[in-house]
Structures are given as C-alpha cells and as structure tokens.
Design a protein that fits this description.
By secondary structure, the protein is an all-alpha fold. The protein has two domains: 65 residues; 30 residues. It is 92% helix and 0% strand. It contains three helices and no strands. The longest helix has 36 residues. It is elongated, with a radius of gyration of 26 Å.
Length: 96
C-alpha cells in the first residue's frame, strides 16, 4: 500500500510537471490547468486516505493481537520514567 502511495505521488508530480510545461508553452489555458490540478489533488487525496486507513488498521490489528506486549512495554516505560525522575530529584537534593 505504501509503495502504491509512493508511486501515485511520483505520478502526481510527473503530471504536474507536464501541466507546467504545457502551460508555459501556451498549449493549455490557466483555467484548464487549475481544473486539472484540482482533479490530480483529489486523486492523490483518495490514495493518501486509503494508505492512512491501511496503516491505521494494521496498527489496530497489531495492538489487539499484542495487547499484553503493549501493556508490558507501557509499564516498563513508566517505571523507567519514574526511576529517572527519582534519581534526578535525589541527586539535586544531595548536591544542595
């Protein structure tokens, strides 16, 4: 899915470059450029939404299948944070 998003983005920029060249050569009017750019942006937005949705669904699936791991890592992170806070506070108290 992400490779498809990268390919679609490259295609979008290629089409924009073609539009710019055609406009600079006077082959198409500005109104048509604006309309085609809006269409290209809409197509890219659809692909980006699909890629984000795919990524988000993958994250949710991973979270539901590995919820014990996530909870364990969260607890470990909180304990490490609390240890850093207490060691910082205790070292500043002993220095003063």
């Amino acid at each position: 899915m992400f490779f498809n998003l990268l390919q679609v983005t490259k295609e979008y920029w290629r089409q924009l470059d073609e539009l710019e060249i055609a406009y600079q050569q006077g082959e198409i009017p500005l109104e048509e450029v604006n309309a085609r750019v809006a269409d290209l942006m809409a197509e890219l937005a659809v692909e980006r939404r699909a890629a984000f949705s795919y990524f988000w669904q993958g994250c949710l699936h991973w979270m539901t299948t590995h919820n014990e791991t996530v909870i364990g890592l969260a607890i470990l992170g909180l304990l490490a944070y609390a240890w850093v806070l207490t060691s910082t506070v205790s070292s500043t108290l002993t220095l003063s």
